[in-house]
């Protein structure tokens, strides 16, 4: 009896030791608050890093929150409600132009093309951009990258967005899809998976990709205040390493395999739809596998902003971009 009692006590002690060790490891992880501008399949590699435990492997406890809008995302970052933000690079230029002693620095690129698609209410077999003339176009929020890229592409095809069509830009980002579904607009600019869901339901039909039309641009990047990067360089490096691992996994995996992993982040979408969307983004090279924000991309970004009349001032590449950490990780 005493022998079994000793064995039982030993097993309890081992269990408690293992539990304490696990708790200790969790407590040792560095907490990182990450704010994403919206929930989008466009950010698939980020969800892969979370779902596959790549952040945890680096000793990080990443808390993801969706802030729904570039202005709200930057407010969270500047007020220290978030350590790192995933948002359009143009927001760092807006903040810099307002004057700051602690600028927001772009340190890793997640996507390198626009992620929106042109959706027509009617099915079009042979779409031509001229068909938009005289139509009602439900665009994105003024001053954001989707809107600026949208106008850039329209002008590229000889369409004046403010003269040749009725441009609607006063609807909140979160309500654009619902407005189109309710009957507003002949065409709409949408992110995935909404565009594919609409096509599946017969609500609308994808006729063109703004990403393919606009070329490479640092569309969404990870950024942090200069002071945070300086004081937490090792943490940022671990963060980038986890993301880079996720990017590589996405690059070599099928759309279906990727979709199965990220599906919990998109409970309203089925795996089949997600797989279609992910393959579409992969085929047009949207995911920035190398994660390096290039000088050429930075110039393209500012050209698009200037074309849209939204560039407050030209900002040198080296002022708001830091590629040292990404390059270090990729060269390991």
Automatic annotation (TrEMBL):
Pfam families: NMT1_2 (PF13379). Residues 1-22 form the signal peptide. It is found in: Periplasm. Keywords: Signal. Its main location: periplasm. PANTHER family: ALIPHATIC SULFONATES-BINDING PROTEIN-RELATED, TAURINE-BINDING PERIPLASMIC PROTEIN. Belongs to the bacterial solute-binding protein SsuA/TauA family. This is ABC transporter substrate-binding protein.
């Amino acid at each position: 009896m005493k022998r079994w009692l000793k064995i039982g006590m030993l097993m309890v002690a081992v269990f408690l030791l293992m539990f304490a060790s696990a708790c200790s490891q969790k407590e040792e992880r560095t907490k990182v608050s990450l704010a994403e501008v919206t929930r989008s399949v466009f950010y698939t590699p980020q969800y892969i890093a979370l779902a596959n435990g790549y952040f945890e492997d680096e000793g990080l406890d990443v808390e993801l929150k969706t802030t729904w809008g570039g202005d709200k995302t930057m407010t969270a970052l500047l007020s220290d409600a978030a350590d790192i933000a995933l948002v359009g690079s143009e927001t760092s230029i807006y903040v810099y132009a307002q004057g700051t002693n602690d600028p927001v620095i772009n340190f890793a690129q997640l996507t390198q093309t626009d992620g929106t698609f042109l959706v027509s209410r009617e099915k079009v077999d042979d779409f031509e951009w001229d068909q938009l003339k005289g139509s009602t176009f439900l665009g994105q929020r003024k001053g954001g990258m989707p809107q600026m890229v949208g106008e850039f592409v329209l002008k590229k095809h000889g369409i004046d967005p403010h003269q040749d069509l009725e441009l609607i830009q006063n609807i909140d980002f979160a309500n654009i899809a619902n407005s189109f579904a309710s009957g507003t607009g002949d065409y709409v600019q949408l992110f995935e998976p909404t565009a594919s869901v609409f096509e599946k339901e017969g609500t609308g039909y994808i006729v063109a990709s703004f990403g393919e039309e606009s070329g490479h641009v640092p569309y969404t990047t990870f950024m942090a205040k200069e002071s945070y990067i300086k004081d937490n360089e090792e943490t940022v490096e671990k963060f980038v390493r986890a993301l880079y691992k996720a990017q590589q996994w996405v690059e070599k995996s099928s759309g279906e395999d990727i979709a199965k992993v990220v599906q919990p982040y998109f409970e309203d979408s089925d795996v089949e739809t997600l797989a279609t969307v992910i393959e579409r983004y992969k085929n047009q090279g949207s995911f920035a596998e190398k994660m390096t924000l290039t000088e050429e991309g930075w110039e393209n970004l500012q050209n698009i902003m200037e074309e849209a009349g939204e560039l407050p001032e030209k900002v040198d590449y080296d002022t708001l971009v830091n590629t040292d950490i990404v390059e270090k990780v990729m060269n390991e």
